[in-house]
Prior knowledge:
The protein is mostly beta strands. It is 13% helix and 42% strand. The chain contains twelve helices and 102 strands.
Amino acid sequence: MSGSIPFYQKHHRHYDRGYRSKQTESKMSQYQSSSRYLAGSSTSATSRSRGLQISSHSGLEESRLSPVPKRAKPTYLAVDKENQIIGYVVPIFRGSQEFATGLSDTEEARVRDTAAYMARRDLFTSGVEMERSEQISRKEAMRESAERISLSKRIHEHEEHFKRMNEDSLMHAPEFVIKPRSHTVWEKQCVRLHCTVSGWPDPRVIWYKNNVALDPLANPGKYKLESRYSVHSLEINRCDFDDTAQYRVSAMNSKGELSAFASVVVKRFKGEIDESLPAPRHGPVSEYGITFQTHIVEKFGVSFGREGETMSLGCTVIIYPALHRYQPEIQWYRDDVLLSPSKWTHMHWSGDRATLTLTHLNKEDEGLYTLRVTTKSGYETYSAYVFVRDADAEVEGAPGAPLDVRCLDANKDYIIVTWKQPAVDGGNSILGYFVDRCEVGTTHWIQCNDTPVKFARFPVTGLVEGRSYTFRVRAVNKSGMSRPSRVSEPVAAMDPADRARMRGTSAPWTGQIIVTEEEPAEGIVPGRPLELQVTEATKNYVVLSWKPPGEKGLEGVMYYVEKCVAGTDSWQRVNTEIPVKSPRFALFDLAEGKSYSFRVRCCNSAGVGEPSDPTEATTVGDKLDIPSAPGKVVPTRNTDTSVVVSWEASREAKELIGYYIEGSIVGSNVWEPCNNKPVKATRFICHGLVTGEQYVFRVRAVNAAGLSQFSQESEPVEVKAAIASPAPPYGITVLECVRDSMVLGWKQPTFIGGADITGYFVDYREVIDGVPGKWHEANIKSITERAYRVSDLKENRKYQFQVRAANMAGVGIPSLPSETFLCEEWTIAVPGPPHDLQIREVRNDSLTLLWKPPVYQGRDPVNGFYIDIKEADAPEESWRGVNTKAVEKTYMKIKNLKEGETYVFRVRAQNKAGVGKTSDVTEPVPALTKPGTKEIVVDVDDDGVISLNFECSDLTPDSKFVWSKNYEEMTDTSRLTVETKGSKSKAVFNAPGEEDIGIYSCLVTHTDGASSSYNLSEEELKRLLEISHDHKFPIIPLKSELAVELLEKGRVRFWLQAEKISANGKVEYVFNDNVLSQGEKYKMNFDKNTGVIEMIMESLTPADEGTFTFQMQDGKATNQSSLVLIGDVFKELQKESEFQRKEWFRKQGPHFIEYLSYEVTPECCVMLKCKVGNIKKETSALWYKDGREIKADEHLGFTEGVLKLEIAQISKKDAGVYEVVLKDDRGKDTSTLNLTDQGFKDLMNEVFSYIANSSTQLKITSTDEGIRIYTFVSYYNDLLQVTWQYKDSAIAFSDRIKSGVVGEQLWLQITEPTEKDMGKYAIEFHDGKGGLKRTVELSGQAFDDAFAEFQRLKAAAIAERNRARVAGGLPDVVTIQEGKALNLTCNISGDPVPEVTWLKNDREITSDDHCILKFESGKFASFTITAINTSDSGKYSILVKNKYGTESGDFTVSVFIPEEVGGKKK
């Protein structure tokens, strides 16, 4: 057992003892170096201190600042005006040596240098103060000023250097050097609050308005926050009355937090009012003379949440009168403790609704929440409980998280952490708790204890002085670890006196703090500690506390703690190497059950002092006992979902934290916690229980030592509302008045106290001259009706009345006194008001209104009633009649209501004299069907018994079903028998007949108006009687009558299906009154599981024409079904049977599964295809068109069984009859497709549809002739029919407007367009169906651009057409014999007629006798050389030119000399 490791240490390496011992060794070495430094530095510190000459505030000593100050002993005394010593002065940064302890030698030297520089700065500051009182020369002042500036700069640079090198040595809490100042400003002015804050690390500054953090982003332009060089400011733009508030600035860093306050008051110029603001109120304002009435509505109820969830609580607050700009004070409380905004609680006030949001629920948030609304006239509150359940455990069976973690007795190096145990232990007892700590500013949690502690309080040691920490706690049982608790508030490890000083007023601007203590005495060994005592003892640890020695002024006092086993005289030092700084110490690892004595010694740099007086012998063990179990537990009924549980407190319980209550449904043995946060009272309301269930409860107490045993279980209690006396009736009216009596009517109380009202009591009193007299009882015995005649009154006297209701709990309080009524006889002819109006059967669009006729009939009997209706919030003139003709009955169903609208009603009675007074108005009722509402259902059972059934899911234990006929309660049971069981009630008709016709209704008492009605009319009764007869004399129900269908191979199946038939059912098969039997021709089958009865025949012959009947019998139930097959019906069935038979044989060989059809592909190709089946390799397929073979497919190797024939670019020549023939040795099959006439037309329409869908949007382009509109298609077919339209009308083509096709382009050409051609153009593709139309708008800019482009192209075409050109006639090369004549002619074109120029070798030539040049008719140019010779050889050109252009034609002339002539010449 000793070698086992608890599971909670197995997976946490950094929690084992080896790791902890290394950490301890590191701490011990730091403390040893610290003590060595303190012991060895006393002399040096003394010598250094002589270099600081500090003057007191009274100016007893004065000295000037010099570069080398004298080494005199420093003076820290502070005196008053009479030179009386009142304390000493602590120089700033004096505590830096305390932070330097435990550092390395290099760091110590750096700290010493830093301290020297700090001392010089203080010396410089004090020197400045002294020099102000002296008269010095201007020259000395300038020199010393320069020295001071130079020295100050060096000190600042050195200080900043060491801040960066060793930040911890200079860390200190925030201080306000300059606090914000309060302001009073006029409206619309701007105000600026600013402060100067010092601190290291740099503090974080937050501004608050009335304790709510300001967010500049939430109010853009309103607030402006700035922070520069430790100066922080808040600027409020254009102040108004709402800005009058207290503003707080909070500065916080890792060393602490400090706040400063300033108020802003906004005033208004008298007589100057901004038009945008509300007009001034005349008369009394909210502070003077007005009484506010506060109403809290739309309240939050008892709420249940789970840890980690977010919950919002809200109430609507109505304040009357509503004054603009007046806002009440809204406060939220939890268990009577005022809540402030935090990261856990957010509060919002919208002007009429108060909301509290719990951002992250923990069990600490459980409790009674109270909203308090305070006005000048008082306050109103509303409270409701919030329950927080544990989050699901991360490990099954693990306990719930601890709660309410707090830090107590914080000191320099230890803090006591306390918490409360959870109510849920996961089914196994809690072994203990682990405490974790986290340094503020980090996210690393460190476990503080190696083994779990059972005591809910633990001293955490080993903290770093000056650091801030948060803590959390986890519970553990044998199943695992709980979730961690909510973290505690941050707490700093420091001396309580230092903490108090940090929270107090800030130091003067000089940076020195005046405290009333003596100068630390150096070299004096401290005395004995005082009042040593054991403040806490558990089996895990013992806590000692003492007071420092009586001698004041001891420098750097620390303590050693010693222990001694009782009965011996051997003292052992507990903290040998680690002296403690705090006058508190926790001792661990003591032997449980042993007795110890303890004593303490003081020590400082001068040595170790004498020990204190030892404590009395203390036995190690829990001093605080677990409380005893609470006493008797008594539950009492409260509401339908809650029970009040009270108990006797635990006896002699010490430091009691509270109680946990658990509840269990009787017999379940499953206990659930009723609260997850201990309650201190001995009474608690357990909510969230199941109505009608029996519960038992038990309670246990809790203190820091643990949870007590459970109390004895309570007696079972049923969860239902407690019975109370009813609320007072209301709405007292006079229904009739005679000389000495008055008939009163009133309305039932809104709350009847959980039990039926047994009666009413009426009181009256006489009113004389407005002064009421004493009350007198009108009836001694209670009355059940809500109308009563009060007798023995005096005529012409005035009376007031009050009514009290009674139930089994007693008589309730009386109603408010009625109006004052005059007792005088009514003589009017019309009837009095109807009374006792009731509303039932409220649905989304209807309700039923009931009333009682007036007591006062008038001169004649009442013969009818009128009902009025209006919306609840509508004015009086909105009343309108429901019925135009008076109804004689005292009830009416009002229909056609608007869902969700709230209505009120009233009734008027009528007699022969006219319409009488209106009744009292009903209470407003919304037209809404409540969830779970059921209607009366009529039922006829198997024996033919007719019954009306009603079910209600909202029953209470006292609820009753009340059945009525025509809204009068039925007392005669001869016609109807009522049976009620649980939540269902049944009204059974004994002998239904015409006497039972009427409206039957059922009302459930003690519910929220659960009711329904059923109109049993004459027609409905007749229908029900027929159903009843069928049930008494049953027939076998059929799902389907006898039918016939064809099966495979043409077989004929006759069948029917019975809806319900037992295994004992029998069937006879009859044909033309002859019973058929099983055989070769008839195959019978009866499946009793499905009720299917069938008979199968292989084929039909003419002898089978006739009537087929199936006769069934099942007990006393019978039925039969017949099918007549004669004439054409029989012939059609026989024909189809033969066809199916042939089809079956056809499919035995190769056959078509899908016959030949066509498909048009997106490429506008036509694909003929068919699907075949039952083929083999030898099967062949032949394609035919118009009887001529066009394709043969042999040795078919396809796997999909699909034959295809593709027709690309289909045209009229492809029309015809296509046929495919399949054949092999098993047979053949043929499929034909007719693509002629209509078949071909349908095919082409589908092709046209693909072409149309492939067309592009119409586009506009220009040519030299005009404007062209065109579209492209992916494929064009000559048979495609299109229509061009202009302004939705077909275009009549002419020479000016033409259409055409070029490739896949379809175009419309408009020659010489004009503005008349502007408009919408369209092309419509015809496909035999809806077609497709593409449109384009040729107008506006589109027309202008196209027309401009046309003009440009036209001009270019004219120029190209009319420019000068050589049309032809000239050869490239002319070879000619010398002496011959050369004649060349070419055609010339151009308008105007071009100029013609001839060139030879690029030189112009002219016409002469040898070379004749002619240009005739402006068209023909001729070139003639009469007798050519060799000199005429060369390159010739003709150049034509007009205003549109120039063109040239070239040819070469080569002259040769014949050989004969050449030889002669030689």
